[in-house]
């Protein structure tokens, strides 16, 4: 079982089943920390991938995720949170998981070998020129993920591969390869652990940097969030108050005037004549709040 790092035996695994429970948990926790550290080496590739994704999304394209098994769950978690956290339209995100919806009930292993399903899923999602597909596989050899990336590339989409084994098929096929060279798992081959942790961290970093490029983050605030519950409406109010310097009550009134749009409310606080005028300013700055605020200040100065 030592053909690849993800299948090799961890150095602390011998006698694991007869160790004290606390000792087992220490090994598991330390292995997660080791896996997380592996992401640092991938930062240049992640930065390049985020720029590509942002370019496709800003150009009107879609972002697709394709994976199987545990990697599919990592992809699902990242993809589902993008609309709420960063306001990216749900119809611009496609989630392709081996086995389809049934995978979320059984996570059976067989579908990950179904290359025809992968090709069909890419086609049905309408992935092509102007779009981007991220494929994930711990081993880097999962047939579903490899076939999805091949099909997306054939259709003209930008492709990003994330895998935990060097020189794997997925990374060779990808236009942009992200290698997360995690140590062997404490439970050999159980890539839901260290490899999955590294994938989750890398996806968090990738989607967050993409959102920064798109103008959805300002001073560490998610200024393009979708405030569709009590908690998020309160968060939106606090963000408007923090960025604009207004009190909570005034921030809430500005959000009401903006129809719940955080960036627009902040620009109203800064002096935009109306919500429509604020939207036009944002259109002129590529939806980026900082230059929009500068534009309003510059306009005030010219009037003075």
Overview of this protein structure:
With 304 residues, this protein is an alpha/beta fold. Helix content is 53%, strand content 10%. The protein contains 13 helices and 7 strands. A hairpin with a 2-residue loop joins strand 6 and strand 7. Helix 2 packs across helix 8, helix 10 packs across helix 11 and helix 11 packs across helix 12. The termini are far apart. The model has no long low-confidence stretch (mean pLDDT 91).
Summarize the structure.
It is built from 13 helices and 7 strands. With 304 residues, it is of the alpha/beta class.
Mean pLDDT: 91
The main sheet orders its strands as 2-1-3-4-5
- Helical residues, percent: 40-55%
For the biggest sheet, the summary is: 5 strands, parallel
Total strand count, please? 7
Query: How far from one another are the termini?
Result: 74 Å
- Proportion of residues in extended strands: 5-15%
Q: Total helix count?
A: 13
Q: What gyration radius follows from the Cα positions, in whole Å? A: 22 Å
Low-pLDDT segments, ≥5 res: none
Q: What string gives the helices and strands in order?
A: HHEHEHHEHEHEHEEHHHHH
Class per helix and strand makeup: alpha/beta
The geometry reads as globular
Quickly list its features:
304 residues, 5-stranded parallel β-sheet, 10% strand, globular
């Amino acid at each position: 079982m030592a053909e690849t790092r993800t299948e090799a035996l961890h150095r602390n695994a011998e006698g694991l089943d007869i160790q004290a429970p606390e000792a087992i948990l220490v090994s598991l926790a330390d292995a997660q920390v080791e896996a997380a550290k592996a992401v640092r080496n991938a930062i240049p590739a992640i930065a390049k991938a985020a720029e590509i994704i942002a370019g496709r999304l800003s150009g009107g394209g879609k972002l697709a995720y394709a994976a199987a098994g545990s990697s599919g769950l990592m992809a699902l978690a990242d993809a589902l949170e993008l609309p709420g956290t960063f306001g990216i339209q749900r119809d611009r995100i496609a989630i392709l998981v081996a086995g389809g919806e049934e995978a979320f009930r059984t996570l059976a292993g067989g579908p990950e070998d179904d290359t025809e399903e992968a090709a069909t899923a890419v086609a049905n999602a309408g992935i092509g020129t102007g779009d981007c597909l991220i494929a994930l596989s711990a081993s880097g050899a999962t047939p579903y993920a490899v076939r999805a990336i091949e099909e997306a590339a054939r259709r003209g989409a930008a492709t990003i591969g994330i895998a935990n084994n060097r020189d794997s098929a997925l990374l060779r096929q990808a236009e942009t390869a992200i290698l997360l060279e995690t140590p062997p798992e404490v439970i050999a081959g159980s890539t839901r652990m260290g490899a999955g942790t590294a994938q989750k961290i890398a996806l968090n970093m990738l989607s967050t940097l993409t959102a920064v490029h798109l103008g959805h983050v300002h001073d560490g605030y998610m200024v393009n969030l979708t405030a569709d519950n009590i908690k998020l409406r309160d968060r939106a109010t606090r963000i408007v108050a923090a960025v604009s310097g207004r009190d909570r009550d005034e921030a809430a009134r500005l959000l009401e005037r903006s129809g719940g749009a955080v960036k627009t409310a902040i620009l109203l606080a800064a002096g935009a004549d109306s919500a429509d005028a604020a939207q036009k300013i944002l259109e002129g700055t590529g939806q980026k709040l900082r230059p929009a605020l500068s534009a309003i200040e510059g306009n005030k100065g010219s009037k003075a």
